Every structure is written in structure tokens, then in C-alpha cells.
Amino acid sequence: MAVEQKDKKKRVCTLEEAHRCIHELEELCTKLKYAENLIVAQRDLAVELSATHNLIDGLRLCVDAAIKVSGLDSGGAYLIDEDTENLNLAYHAGLGADFVSGVSHFNANTHNADLILKGKPIYATYKKIMNELSDYERNENLHAIAVIPILHENRVIASVNIASHSIDEVPLYTRNSLEIIAGQMGNAIARLKAEEELELSENKYRDLVENTKDIIYVLDSAGRIASVNKAVKDLLGYEPE
Question: Which of 11, 77, 152, 180 is the most buried (most CB within 10 A)?
Fold first, then answer.
């Protein structure tokens, strides 16, 4: 009888060990699958960002990638004004209209701006990081939130904030992934902002040239007139061509 009980106990222990091994293998497979998905997300984001020349489209790609990687359900991207350090919400997804209206702008000296301008990622519940909730914040009822500052040349230029309406904590295994993706975003956002500013500058110059009443012309390397504005017709009677 004693031998039978010992054998039975031995079989039970072996079964428990087998279950533990299966559980560990399942966890390992989950981590490997997540790592694979992260690599794919990084690759896709890099390819899509390199192909876009529109700042808002770039921010959309960044926010959507962060939501996908984190498993949360909503988020937005803020741009930092270089002169004032004020924050302006440039893109959002999965958030109510009243909430978006209330958080669309923050001055540099506010609590919300200070959280981002410190340049360190924050993982918490929405209620915990806010000093006091407004009506639109209570109605939105956000739970977990990740605040990920985007840096370029050691300066905060933007922030991607990801949140959940149901999950109380940003999963630990997604936090490093969010920061890895955020590292990709800095150069891309800086490039897109520079391209947008260049386009605006060119448009202003074009409007100035075309609408002035003075003749403005550009010479080529041989000293010949390469282009001239339309004021030439009003003043001299010649077509610009």
C-alpha cells in the first residue's frame, strides 16, 4: 500500500510539472509572437513614414502603430510649438468630441504640458496623473494611459499619448515596445515638420511675388531672365512668358 501511494504521488508531481512546462511554453510562445509582431510593426511604420510627406498622415501612422502595439484603444499626438512650448493636439483616434475639444491645447506652464516636457515616459491611470478631473474627462472615463514624449536632438518636439477605456494598467511587456517605436518617430516627425514649414514658406513667397505690384524677376547663371511675375504686364504690357 505504501508503495502504491508513493507511486501515485510521483505521478501527480510529474503531471504538475508537465502543466507548468506547458504554461511556460505558452508564455514563451506568446512573448515570441509579440516580439515578431513588434518587428513587423516597426518595419511597417518605418516604410510608411518614409513614403509620406504630410505631417498629419505621419502622426496618424505613429498613433495607430502605438495603439496596435500597446493593445489600448485610443490616443492622440501633440506637437510642441518651438517658440512657446505650448502643446497642440494634431491628431486623435477613439476619443469623444467633448474630450478632444477640452484637451486640444495646453499652455507650456500647465500641468499637462509639464508632464510631457519633462521628456520621460509616464505609465499610470488617467485619474492618477491629473490634478483634478473636469466634466469632459469624467465623461470620457479613461483608465490606463501612456504618455510618450517624442524627442529629436535631445529636445521634446511632440508626444504620443495612448489610453484605454477599459484596461486599468498599461501592460508591462508593451512599455518597452512603445518607447522603441517612439524612437522611430522623432526623426520622421522632425522631417515632416521641416517639409511642411518649407512648403508654407514657399507658398508665402509665391503669393508675395505674384501679388506685388512691383516687377520681380529671377536671373539664371548666365544673367538671363529665367522667370518674372505677372506685374510685368500691368507695368510694361508684356506677358510674363
Answer: 77
